[in-house]
Design goal:
Elements: E1 2-7, H1 15-31, E2 36-38, H2 63-70, E3 78-85, E4 94-101, E5 104-110, E6 130-133, E7 136-142, H3 149-157, E8 162-167, H4 180-202, E9 205-210, E10 212-214, E11 219-221, E12 225-227, E13 233-236, E14 243-248
Parallel strand pairs: 1-2, 2-3, 7-8, 8-9
Antiparallel strand pairs: 1-14, 3-4, 4-5, 6-7, 9-12, 10-11, 12-13
Length: about 250
């Protein structure tokens, strides 16, 4: 299976700009005949405080979400993209990842693991999501799900063979004195320790795509990684620079 893992700078509430980046990268994925391209958590809306940027909190039928899904019209390449989603019942919003192909939504996953400061802003989701492409069953985990074994256990129980961990782990500390290498090293270690163990325990392929770079008030480490069912990390980007990694995963 051919996959794309996107390290993208996703400015907060910059809906038009983020969608334009997504369109360019998705078009390249189609040109490369990629099966699935994974964008990081909240790539469309940016990682926003919903109280500070309420206009970036989107219902699923918003023009921006509709336009993102429409990128896939007539294309077999699966698009995985993230946003902050309006809660249908008026509660705190969801952190959501949408699966789209050929102009249609194949599925929606709402982040299950909402902890620490996120619990003040967001509602936790529930069931995991699987989708099938070319007879391969895939699943999605979002950022802090990395510390929740049940997400990966449930995906395995539903037949997943390849899981996309799509993330936006904000880095702590002042932007002015940011040590990018230490932030990248921290996230790289989190992925290696948690995802390597899940891959080995459950016999999964796990691929990681991460928000990268500086936004108006927060920085992200970037990083693309791939783990084999042995637990071995078979690919790691050398740093957290924005860009796209194109991989062939031999399932």
């Amino acid at each position: 299976m051919r996959i794309g893992l996107v390290q993208m700078v996703c400015e907060k509430a910059a809906l038009r700009e983020n969608l334009a980046q997504m369109a360019t990268i998705y078009a390249e994925a189609v040109e490369r005949d990629v099966d699935v391209v994974g964008f990081p958590e909240m790539c469309l809306t940016g990682y926003v405080d919903p109280l500070k940027w309420p206009k970036a909190v989107l219902p699923l039928n918003s023009p921006e979400v509709t336009s993102a899904v429409a990128l896939t019209r007539g294309c077999a390449t699966v698009l995985l993209f993230g946003l902050v989603e309006t809660h249908p019942d008026g509660d705190k919003p969801y952190i959501t990842q949408i699966v789209a192909r050929d102009g249609s939504v194949l599925g929606i996953y709402r982040k299950r693991t909402v902890v620490d400061e996120e619990a003040d802003w967001f509602s936790p989701g529930g069931p995991v999501l699987i989708f099938t492409h070319d007879d391969v069953t895939c699943g999605i985990a979002i950022c802090a799900d990395i510390g929740n074994r049940s997400v990966f256990a449930d995906l395995t129980a539903q037949g997943a063979r390849l899981v996309f961990e799509l993330a936006a782990p904000g880095l702590y500390g002042a932007q002015e004195t940011r040590n990018w290498q230490s932030g990248f090293t921290w996230w790289e270690g989190e992925c290696r320790d948690h995802l390597g163990a899940y891959a080995r325990e459950f016999g999964l392929w796990i691929a990681v795509a991460t928000q990268a770079g500086r936004t108006i008030d927060e920085d992200f480490p970037g990083g693309a990684f791939c783990f084999a069912p042995t637990g071995e990390r078979v690919f790691a980007s050398p740093d957290g620079a924005p860009g796209v990694v194109w991989l062939a995963v031999d399932l």
